[in-house]
Amino acid sequence: MADDLTGGYQYPFPMPDEDDVAMSDGAVHGRPPGVPSSYEAGRSIRWTPDSIAEVHALSRLGRYQIRGFTTDNTRFPTFDDLTFVPASLTRLPLEGYRENCDTRTVLGGGRPDLVSAPLELGIPIYIASMSFGALSASAKAALGYGASKVGSLTCTGEGGMLEDEREASNKLVYQMTPSRYMLDLEHLRQADGIEIVVGQGAKPGTGGLLLGMKVSERVAGMRSLPLGVDQRSTVRHPDFLGADDLQVKIEELREATDYKVPIFVKMGATRPRFDVAIAAKAGADVIVVDGAEGGTGASPELLINHTGIPTITAIKAAREALEDCGMADEVSLVAAGGIRSGVDAAKCLALGADCVMIGTAALVALGCNSPRYLDDYEALGTAPGQCHHCHTGRCPVGITTQDPELETRMHVAAGAERVARYLTAMTMEITLLAKACGKSSVHNLEMEDLRALSLEASAFTGVKLAGIDRPFGW
Ligand SMILES: Cc1cc2nc3c(=O)[nH]c(=O)nc-3n(C[C@H](O)[C@H](O)[C@H](O)COP(=O)(O)O)c2cc1C
Ligand code: SF4
Questions:
Q1: Which of 354, 431, 444 is nearest to 118 (CA)?
Q2: Ligand nearest to the CA of 401
Q3: What domains are there in the chain, each with its CATH number?
Q4: pLDDT value at position 334?
């Protein structure tokens, strides 16, 4: 519920009808289906039909809008602003159908004295931390089975370790949130990695958000919350306020897990050059940088669209931070946020990531936005291909819901198979590009394999401009 800013103030006149207050049926969640025709001719780049509708919606609601999915800020550069320049004469390509390209990926393998069981993955992609609560138990299980089939891993996200997910996942990273939901020593010991989350790309600087519609009995039980009440998690970890305390926390977690599993630190991309250096110096084995395009189950829309820096701008800064600290060989770098395909993933690897993590794309592979149950999309005021209503708990395809009837639409076995095939296809896309660039391992992709198609993308990433062969401004 929104904070009450009125201090109980009463108007000196009777309240008008709700319809008069609302002015139009401006959308409560997301954009209205159409805007009044008088605005159609509006050509202002500032007062667009969308920005007018937004003011109407806010003046009706008296609070900011909340929604799920990901940013629709069209000013963010995308992976499409970069292109690959495969080998020709200056470099030799590998035979795409005959020669091998290694995809094995190790996370947390740089400190054998501190991590005796690093995470060895068959592919350079894994499934992001998405909580049980945001996702249904069936979706969590399907992601776990799908990832396991291709030698990858998945993460619990906020809200504790679900038995269904532990059973489904050969490798499971356990997320430690500031609010310590369901923090359980037994679960820490059952995990194959521990992730300390200090922020998310979709909403850096704020904590998790789960609306009451999704706080079912099972979710409430796991998070020690009252049934059906909105849950807004804290963002600051009570155990550490700075780098020194983070180091102590990491050390504690190592002791609790017998110096076995890698410790991840996940952050939203804001100042990666400094934040990554601090996390590395504090002892993180794996650092996850989640760009502003990162998906979410629910967040204030203004944070989704207007906070953080885009993924392609964050990776190089993060890689340079590790190099500057002399820790590039010790710490693994994972990139996330807006990755849709193997092509996007390959670009992340070329920019300096060791591995990528996908959230939204994995949900789409599970069936998010698929053209079934059309009436239910319509009831939400949306349609397949445009749905961003994960926050409502009424997911038409059973992925982001706790409604038992909707959840039956998420078939675990079929969903797992789609996720496994999608991860396989993504990996094939990466190896195809890597071989064309002459690489026998996906981890040999480098900035020189890329060219920028816009001045901004070149300036943001340091990638050479196409045809000019030097970065913009250098
Ligand atoms: C439905 C959903 C739930 C999420 N839940 C969590 C969470 O519990 N903890 C967390 O750190 N991040 C959470 N995230 C963010 C993801 O871990 C990841 O950072 C993000 O999805 C990556 O961007 P992408 O969706 O573009 O791949 C969630 C994302 C989605 C889509
Ligand atoms: S289909 Fe479900 S998971 Fe996909 S955006 Fe809509 S509510 Fe979210």
A1: 354
A2: 2
A3: 79-461 (3.20.20.70)
A4: 98
What does the pLDDT read at residue 37? 44
Q: Whose CA is nearest to atom 5 of ligand 2?
A: 388
Q: Which residue has the tokens 């020194």?
A: 244
Exposure letters 181-220 (e unless 16+ CB within 10 A, then b): bbeeeebbeebbbbbbbbbbbbbbebbbbbbebbbbeebb
Q: Give which of 126, 138, 137 is closest to 173, Cα–Cα.
A: 126
> Could you identify the atom of ligand 1 that is nearest to the CA of residue 390?
1
Q: Which residues sit with their C-beta closer than 6 Å to ligand 2?
A: 68-69, 363, 368-369, 387-390, 395-397, 399-400
d(CA 264, CA 462): 27
Nearest to 313 by CA among 344, 327, 292, 288: 292
| Residue numbers of the chain with a pLDDT score lower than 50 | 1-2, 29-31, 37-39
Q: Indicate which ligand has the atom closest to the C-alpha of 394.
A: 2
Residue closest by Cα to atom 6 of ligand 2? 387
Write the pLDDT tens digit of every residue in 39-77.
455 567 788 878 888 898 899 889 999 999 999 998 899
Tokens representing 348? 């992340």
Got the DSSP string for 449-462?
GEEESSHHHHHHH-
Dihedral through CA 342, CA 364, CA 77, CA 91, nearest 10? 10
- pLDDT, position 2: 47
Compute the distance between CA of residue 154 and CA of residue 119 in angstroms, rounded to an integer.
Answer: 11
Q: Which one of 237, 290, 296, 388 would you pick to mutate in the ligand 1 pocket, going by the greatest count of ligand atoms within 8 A of its CB?
A: 296
DSSP secondary-structure letter at 213? G
User: For residues 126 and 147, is the Cβ–Cβ distance under 8 A?
Assistant: yes
Q: How many Å lie between the centroid of ligand 2 and the Cα of residue 373?
A: 12
CA of 418 to the centre of ligand 2 (A): 16
By alpha-carbon position, which residue is closest to atom 4 of ligand 2?
368
Contact 445, 84 (CB under 8 A): no
Bridge partners of residue 214, in order along the sequence? none
Three-state DSSP state, 6 = coil
Residue from 79, 126, 130 whose mutation best tests the ligand 1 pocket (most atoms within 8 A of CB): 130
